[in-house]
Amino acid sequence: MVTFDEARSIILESVQPVGTERIHLLEATGRVLAEDVAAPWDMPLWDNSAMDGYAVRAEDCLSTPCRLRVTGFLPAGARADGIAVEAGCAVRIMTGAPTPDGCDAVVPVEETDDGQQEVTLLEPVKKGQHLRLRAEDVAAGTVFVRSGTRIRPPEVNMLAGFGMALVPVFRRPVVAILSTGDELVELGRTPGPGEIINSNTLSLSSAVLEAGCIPRIIGIARDTRESHLEKLREGVKADVLITSAGVSAGDCDLVRDILEELGAKQKFWKVGIKPGGPTAFAMYGSTPVFSLPGNPVSTMITFEEFVRPALLKMLGNTGVLRSLFTALLREPLKKKPGKVQIVRVRLEKENGCWYATSAGNQQTAILRTMVDAQAIALLPAESCGAAAGDEVLVHYYGNHIELEPQ
């Protein structure tokens, strides 16, 4: 049995991105950049005005108020060729317009009388005010966004500003998802005696999508060697394979044996955690294979703690683990020493402190507790539980809370 931390380390050391592709910028939000991107030109490309107002020479504006003759007009999109600010004069200018020769300051229109032939400046003028200088944002040749960056609207704006319609990103892994068991029936059919709906496939697909990857459902492996062999042989063709159930030590738990027969190399089986102990991890060539317990709660928790970080790394992310922070318990939590206890909790914030409360019955058959949980508390393997008022380490679960603690 490996520890919780050992299992994560083995997994993350085993997986790598699955390749790159170039996609249209409009489709790139949320994807991870696969190459450093350098500016092909200066941004901005020319000195320009940061305000609607008047381009002036600061030396002409030493007294307040100051009256200047207006000798020209520069709207956004115009060229400043042949236009200059002469002594005692001003040029009316719009935001983004190139500044004319001689200009070393712009006076906002609201600090003037808005004159057309002559203008009165009502406030003191400082040299350099309200000017955007060439290359002050990014100089040509500068790397302005690095490989491993998750593309957000600010990155889209800057990439678009440099005319980059296609961007290199890490490819989204295709994740095959397989459930096992004769008791399973697909969604849409009313289960009969001894049957249950194959909900794990759908929740795993949802989790894969939420992580940014592409789920591919390959159905149900029935409790025969032939069915397992057929489905697992199909599953290992994907970039990642996740199986649910059939990984313990029962007579019908065939997943590990069939994977070994196919040539997969098992990295570990059983982890010192509760719930989720029977988790296994193997590599079929470069394809990671996660064999998760079949109980829906255990399936979702082991996906969260082991599979999600691996998928994020395969997508090119550099930070793949959720941030841990401390919360104070409102009630005691019991456990036996020896395994990391993974507890589903709800969070509240009072007077700048986070407080954690059990989300409900922690038995692995109680799915409602997963629905109600906002976060996961991790109780160390060596601990005998925690008392009310004790600090525990927690991390968010899913997207219940989007803001990080302050």
Multimeric status of the protein = single chain
* Estimated structural class: alpha/beta
CATH class call of the largest domain: Alpha Beta
Q: What gap, in angstroms, lies between the N and C termini?
A: 37 Å
Strand content: 25-35%
Enumerate the strands of the largest sheet in spatial order, edge to edge or round the barrel.
15-12-16-20-19-17
List how many beta strands DSSP finds. 27
Total of helices: 7
Task: Describe it.
With 406 residues, this protein is an alpha/beta fold. It has four domains: 4-16 and 172-314, Molybdenum Cofactor Biosythetic Enzyme, Chain A (3-Layer(aba) Sandwich); 20-43 and 149-170, Molybdopterin biosynthesis moea protein, domain 2, CATH 3.90.105.10; 48-132, Molybdopterin biosynthesis moea protein, domain 3 (Molybdopterin biosynthesis moeA protein, domain 3), CATH 2.170.190.11; 325-396, Beta-clip (Beta Barrel). 19% of the residues lie in helices and 31% in strands. It has helices at residues 4-14, 153-161, 199-211, 225-235, 255-262, 296-314, 368-372; strands spanning 20-24, 37-38, 48-49, 53-56, 66-74, 89-93, 105-108, 118-121, 131-132, 143-145, 166-170, 174-180, 184-185, 196-197, 214-221, 240-244, 265-269, 273-274, 280-284, 287-292, 325-329, 333-334, 340-350, 353-358, 375-379, 385-386, 391-396. The strands form eight sheets. A six-stranded mixed sheet has the order 15-12-16-20-19-17, sandwiched between helices. The chain is elongated.
